[in-house]
Design a protein that fits this description.
single chain, 1 helix, isomerase, PPIase_FKBP_dom, Chitinase A, domain 3, alpha+beta, rotamase, two-stranded antiparallel sheet
């Protein structure tokens, strides 16, 4: 099903301090789909993905700035 501003991604979330992985889609090869600005992702993802192009591979870190709560979404 096609949707405006939807992204389907593989991701791995890890702690910056230790590198400990706390969430990933790679282990069971699942994918995650979300719509920009509609949750359930952190605001940092909404900001970062708005600047990407289709099929863009994000090799850089997307970190959550301290002024944006991890539980906050751009709704």
């Amino acid at each position: 099903m096609w949707c405006v501003d939807c992204w389907t991604v593989h991701y791995e979330g890890s702690l910056a301090e230790t590198g400990e992985v706390f969430d990933t889609t790679h282990v069971d090869n699942t994918i995650f789909t979300f719509q920009l600005g509609k949750g359930p992702v952190i605001k940092a993802w909404d900001v970062a993905f708005r600047t990407m192009k289709v099929f863009f591979y994000l090799a850089a870190q997307v970190s959550n700035p301290p002024h944006i709560s991890v539980s906050q979404t751009d709704q």
